[in-house]
Amino acid sequence: MRSSSLRFGRALILCLLILFPLTAAKTARNDRWTILGPGGGGAQFMPTISPHDPDRVLVGCDMTGSYISNDGGGSWRMFNLRGRTRFFVFDPGAPDTIYAQGIGLWRSTDAGTSWNLVCPAPATVTGIEMPDDHAGERIMTTTGPALPILALAVDPADSRQLLAAFFSDRRTAELRASSDWGKTWINLREFARGVRKIYIDPGSPKDNRTIYVIGSNSVSVREHGEWNDRPTAPGVGSFIDVSAGFPSGGGRLVIYATVPARLEGGVLTGGILVSSDGGQSWRQGGSGILEKADPSSPLPNFPAIATSLSHPEAAYVSVGRMNLGGVPSLGVAKTVDTGKSWRFAWLESGQISKDVDDGWVSERFGPGWGENPLNLGVSPTNPDLCYGTDYGRTLKSPDGGKTWKATYTRKQRDGWVTTGLDVTTCYGIHFDPFDPKRMFISYTDIGLFRSEDGSKSWISSTVTGVPHPWVNTTYWVEFDPDVKGRMWAVMSETHDLPRLKMWRRASPSAYQGGVCRSDDGGRTWKVTAEGMPPTAATHILLDRRSPSTARLLYVAGFGQGVFKSSDGGATWALKKHGLPTKEPFAWRLAQDRRGVLYLVVARRSDDGSIGNDGDGGLYRSEDGAETWQKVSLPEGVNGPNGIAIDPSDTKRLYLAAWRRDNGQPTAGGGIFLSTDGGTSWRSVLAADQHVYDVTIDPRNASVLYACGFESSAWRSTDRGESWQRIRGYNFKWGHRVVPDPVNPDRIYIATYGGSLWQGPAAGDPNAKEDIATPQLRFSR
User: Fold this and answer.
1) What is the model's pTM?
2) Cβ(667)–Cβ(661) below 8 Å
3) The predicted structure's pLDDT at residue 779
4) How far apart are CA 750 and CA 92, in angstroms?
């Protein structure tokens, strides 16, 4: 009887395992914050797979976030190290030890849960400088700015032994060695043309390792204690990408490099080079690719190549701009014979490949939007496992390139939901007053997205009626509070305003954009821009006192001024009397309960100067935008970025300001309070010098929120007199905080590159911070 029961139990367990196979644990956050949105949407880089666990993978991006998955890309956790990560390295001898190079060299010994600074030594850290418009961080030490590390290798048999290439103050690369986990370093030699990668031969003597250093166009080898600088790859100025591995049976390092393709005598050459002898000699390695391309301009490009560290006979290369019979094509090619021949593992020519299930990006924008991979990563132990990252996606192939599947998003009902890999800039979350489950996120690059189910899934909301160039960015949305389904949105092809990189080289007079109106809750749109020339419209404000039949609307036109409509957006007139005459960078609007308007004009200088025509400004209009009067700014401030007005006291103003780069710790940034309508100001938050916006909780004017570009969001419960950091939120670049209209204990934070965060209004007191080093902790 018992034996029969056991057999039945085993059989039941076996059936359950077949139906519901065991999977790796979901990659959970270390706090009560959630990131919302469709996932992906921005450039992703450096897919790096653990040599110990094929389900553990890391990805970086250009928007400062880093991401780790412990379930093969099924879910991701963002972690933040105060800036962009440049590379990841797994310790080959310690499964839970990972290195990440960003503003310094970080190490995690708990599988990416927390990170400690290795280099520069924490004891030498004197502070952080944020000298540029993006508040890019630079660690300062007792000897000056921390030196960047270009490449790192960990000895496969001894985790204490590290090799690192430091970018020296002489503009060269110094190869240094450490035998104590990076506490101290000795200089081995200098490389005049930089270092791309470092490899340690695992088969070489442990006390006298063979080291390969791949530079910009050649390889140097240290063997038996002697250095040998191998010849420059013929005809190569600089490698585009390099990857290498050691044959499983031992032998010289096999190196793959991509270089620009070129036309010689009507024949395409270049593209891929291969060395099977550690860089001593090179051969052409693009057979099977270049022959397929039309040898006419543009020539194909090869931005990324990757091989398996222990199986270098297999490699993958990213191919773009392939001209196949006049049709632009892109994809990934693979070799299994050390580059002698290649076949396309993935090829798209205007149509989505049947072998690529890439989520919402190609479904919405077509296969060319994400382009071919910017980076590729192959498992060090399994040459059939490959990840590719591009301008909007991270894709995974578990079968040697036969199929590719999105890991940045997953299908949910009729829309898409993020897996935790979010690389999108947004400006706010917007709630339909007639339907609490309908909400919108105003994004850059991917435009406006809509949820019909309370943020469980998301779909593009710019499919119908929006001019194609305007789809790029939706800066803001307004709803008609009395007419169900009616809403307006300001859209532009120019993103990332008011960041100076957008207008430094191009006049705002060339910007495209305007206003669209929807009468069906954002499903379809119609351009309403009569009287408004093409403009980067960055904000829209509805005067809620106006009748529903003749709505008063105001729009900030960057480089133009303020546009006003008295007929619900049907027609517009420019109102700029009193504003700067030279392309006023009209950025944000606000209105008090009496109807008085305020306009923030963004700064147009980045040199730290003040008191000239590059200053930003704050303006007020008491006659419906017909005329504008300048409001004095706080002393030392010329970078206003946001304004909020107390709903019960129109003279109480809160100003968010961006610091000037003048070399001082505080230089005109933070939050300033005026209780006399802008006649005088005082600083109430100086700990954060790059504050993007300040928000008043509509339920309680004593509660305010703010965030900016210093990895923090802030909360005040005493009308701005004192501020507390909101624990758990640590994304480097924040835009604004939006209180939840239903739940007073919940807020949303729109970010510049990390999508939309949702979490506790007072923060999570038990949140485990990513950075453990006391000198650099966010909560220090």
Assistant:
1) 0.95
2) yes
3) 63
4) 38
